Amino acid sequence: MTELRAKLVKLRRTARAVPAALCVAVVLTVVPAAAQQREVPQSREEVMLSFAPVVKKAAPAVVNIFAKRQVEQRSAVSSLLDDPFFRRFFGDGLDDQKRRKREQSSLGSGVIVAEEGFIVTNEHVIKGATEIKVVLTDRREFEAELVLTDERTDLAVLRVDPGGEKLPTIEMRDSDDVEVGDLVLALGNPFGVGQTVTSGIVSALARTQVGITDFSFFIQTDAAINPGNSGGALVTLDGRLIGINTAIYSRSGGSVGIGFAIPANMVRTVVDSARDGRALVRAWTGLIGQDLTSDLAEGLRLERPGGVVISDVYDGGPADRAGIDPGDVIVAVNDQPVNDLQSLRYRVATGALGDSLEVEMVRQGQTLNAELPLEPPPESPPRNEVRLLGHHPLGGAYVASLSPALAEELDMPDNWAGVVITKVQRGTPADRVGFRARDIILSLNGESYQNSGNLANALDRISGKWQITFKRDGKVRRVEFNS
Questions:
Q1: pTM score, whole prediction
Q2: Residues known to be catalytic
Q3: Is residue 61 over pLDDT 90?
Q4: Helices 264-276 and 341-349, interaxial angle, to 10°?
Q5: CA atoms within 13 A on the CB side of 293
Q6: Long-range contacts made by residues 211-214, C-beta under 8 angstroms, separation at least 24?
Q7: Up-side HSE of residue 158: CA atoms within 13 Å toward CB?
Q8: Do residues 198 and 223 lie in contact, with contact meaning Cβ atoms separated by under 8 Å?
Q9: Is 393 exposed, middle or buried (0-12, 13-18, 19+ CB in 10 A)?
Q10: Distance of CA 471 to the CA centre of its chain
Q11: How far apart are the C-alpha atoms of 107 and 112, rounded to whole Å?
């Protein structure tokens, strides 16, 4: 008995000497597994246990997408038929014999965002598809119809008919609430192996220099994203969607820890248009600007670069009515920093028509605020598309009167007036001299034109000599032709 009592005293002394942190660790390890509730983590301590509850919540709404398309493939006919000399005798008629169609399949991922069967994915996943099949995690399969595509954001919305069955969905989160360092999960179907989950953090926000889409404003993550993950979900640890995985930076084709996702706020605008059954129309500001560089900041006597310097304002447009003037520097929108032109375009594009944005700007050293209304771009003047006929350098080109609405449609936001080439027929004079779609005709023989019909009439009256000044990719060029 005396020996047993001595051992107990020794055990008590040992327990007093154990650090408190280790005591907690011991207590945690002896908690029965059945007593641990498998729910979405509510604290950092719970996050350390497992991602499984988050996956169980989000994974059912992430689907596999199989797209089929018809592509033309040239047959192994003698390359002599490609020689211009032989084409003089045989013409282009043999092209039909040299091409054959074959079926090509591609795979990707998608996310169910509404119980009515709406699914969002990347536009490049289903581009040109003649048949689209959606497969859920529970192996249910549905034929999908394409509801809306938006090449400028690389997003597409599909719809399936659940036939009375209930579909799992995922809730979108305000992507502006996400911070660098937040833990995230990427769900998708990489390499076609089946649904896969990878974990990582938000590595960076507002990546605008990636150049993947027209609206470059991406969430960067080091969660492994590979081919087949396109269109999949990027979720936070509350199980909500913050982005659609769209691209990776890689020299080998595999993940190197730099992936990009389209923010949920941009996704929401596209999905809302699809659900409402309306065409996607983005808000228009009526201003032209450029990034505030170090040189510009020094010239404007600003402390640091960052922001958008306004260079022009459309008369009577939203920015003009808001009191924004050329020379103003926009630095924030709705309390979110605006570091460059892409950031400003993103903030406007994710706003709802009819709402307004709170704009913070700097004018001659003073900080001012303005309410910028969000309105659709006007189509004034009407586009009046005309096909130009005749033996002149623009013969075979289709031209239209440029307006803010047409400029947005053609992704030419910095051009509001003039006559723009919308299409050039192959083999025509305009094609042979090198004119392209989106060239803006500034003047013809010294005369400027704002209306496509007036330009067509002028071309019919001119013969012998044509001096054409046009703008391409922001650069003004001048060419001269003689008959």
A1: 0.75
A2: 124, 154, 230
A3: yes
A4: 40
A5: 3
A6: 212/154, 212/246, 212/247, 212/260, 213/152, 213/153, 213/154, 213/246, 213/262, 214/152, 214/153, 214/411
A7: 31
A8: yes
A9: buried
A10: 26
A11: 16
Distance between CA atoms of residues 137 and 109, nearest Å: 11
Give kind and range of the element (H or E) at residue 242: strand 241-248
Provide the 8-state DSSP code for 101.
E
Distance CA 155, CA 9 (A): 70
Q: Of 66, 44, 52, which Cα lies nearest the Cα of 110?
A: 66
DSSP, residue by residue, 174-219: -GGG--TT-EEEEEE-GGGS--EEEEEEEEEEEE-SS-SSSS--EE
Between CA 318 and CA 331 the distance in angstroms is 18
Per-residue pLDDT tens over the stretch 403-457: 999 998 888 888 888 999 999 999 999 999 999 999 999 999 989 999 999 999 9
Beta-carbon contacts of residue 434 (< 8 Å; ≥ 6 apart): none
Q: Which residues contact 272 (CB under 8 A, 6 or more apart)?
A: none
C-beta separation of 322 from 361 below 8 A: no
Token pair 């055990």 in the structure block, residue: 11
Length of the chain measured in residues: 483
Residue 192 CB: number of other CB atoms within 10 A? Answer: 13
Residue 453's CB: how many other CB atoms inside 10 A? 14
What secondary structure does DSSP assign to 306-329, as a single string? Answer: -SEEEEEE-TTSHHHHHT--TT-E
Q: How confident is the model at residue 29 (pLDDT cuts 50, 70, 90)?
A: very low
| Type of residue numbered 293 | T
